[in-house]
Amino acid sequence: MQKESDMQDISSPSATRKSPGVSLIAAVANNGAIGFENKLLYWLPNDLKRFKALTTGHTIVMGRRTFESLPKGALPNRRNIVLTKNAHFIAPNAEIFPSLEGALEACLTSVNAESVNSGEVFILGGASVYREALPLASRLCLTLVDDTPEQADAFFPWLNPADWKVVADKAHEADERHRFAYRFIDLERR
Ligand SMILES: NC(=O)c1ccc[n+]([C@@H]2O[C@H](COP(=O)([O-])OP(=O)(O)OC[C@H]3O[C@@H](n4cnc5c(N)ncnc54)[C@H](OP(=O)(O)O)[C@@H]3O)[C@@H](O)[C@H]2O)c1
């Protein structure tokens, strides 16, 4: 279950600095779960398709543990940024930053050699990076998976409904390729 300490109240004005262009993208279960033992909980082909369509050509920012969980390392056709305090961490085809603030500053003000469209930055997780980035986000691209896994150790942060409005919501039934029903929900900061 989501721990109290995992939750944050982002309703106070000082905590809600709006940074246009920062989007969080995540697949989240009914109980807020997003991962277990540094693995994703779900393999939903349509979710992967949407993830690819949304993030290709843009900058993606992720924590070191999420980067390590990617089966083939850095994702192609995107500017990959990995957060770690470990200055010796090796992340082929990715850039390393020791702070989220530094990473966002760099990617909101410059375009890297691959000429990605750096106007938009997607925060890829995991839990710790979602928590830190939520107050800076203007948009959330969520896949809500209709499942309540008992085995989970990483959770999406609590969202204050007063801060977010749903701008798109598309429901999909489970089928032979998708074990669970799911919804694609986009939210924008009010
Ligand atoms: N469902 C989804 O959509 C989704 C998406 C992504 C990930 N996940 C899941 O989330 C879980 C991983 O989340 P997690 O919270 O354990 O790990 P994480 O956020 O991926 O990585 C944590 C690590 O990132 C570095 N880091 C984080 N914030 C930093 C900052 N501000 N400055 C510098 N370094 C920073 C630190 O690395 P160092 O220790 O090296 O300093 C920290 O230990 C996995 O289960 C994964 O599958 C789910």
Keywords:
alpha/beta, Dihydrofolate Reductase, subunit A, 8-stranded mixed β-sheet, 3-stranded antiparallel β-sheet, 4 helices, disordered N terminus, binds NADP nicotinamide-adenine-dinucleotide phosphate
Mean pLDDT across every amino acid position: 88
Q: Assign the CATH class.
A: Alpha Beta
* Biggest beta sheet summary: 8 strands, mixed
Kindly identify the CATH topology: Dihydrofolate Reductase, subunit A
Bin the helical content: 10-25%
Order of H and E elements: EEEHEHEEHEHEEEE
**How big is the Rg?**
16 Å
Give a topology summary.
Layout: E1 22-29, E2 33-36, E3 39-40, H1 45-55, E4 59-63, H2 64-69, E5 79-83, E6 95-97, H3 100-109, E7 121-125, H4 127-133, E8 139-145, E9 154-155, E10 164-172, E11 182-189
NADP nicotinamide-adenine-dinucleotide phosphate is lined by residues 26-27, 34-35, 38-40, 62-66, 69, 83-86, 89, 98-100, 124-129, 132, 154.
Task: Give an overview in words.
By secondary structure, the protein is an alpha/beta fold. It has a single domain, classed as Dihydrofolate Reductase, subunit A, CATH 3.40.430. Helices cover 18% and strands 31% of the residues. The protein has an eight-stranded mixed beta sheet, sandwiched between helices. A three-stranded antiparallel beta sheet has the order 3-2-9, with no helix packed on it. Strand 4 (59-63), helix 2 (64-69) and strand 5 (79-83) form a beta-alpha-beta unit. The two termini are 28 Å apart. Mean pLDDT is 88; it is low at 1-20. The structure holds NADP nicotinamide-adenine-dinucleotide phosphate. NADP nicotinamide-adenine-dinucleotide phosphate is lined by residues 26-27, 34-35, 38-40, 62-66, 69, 83-86, 89, 98-100, 124-129, 132, 154.
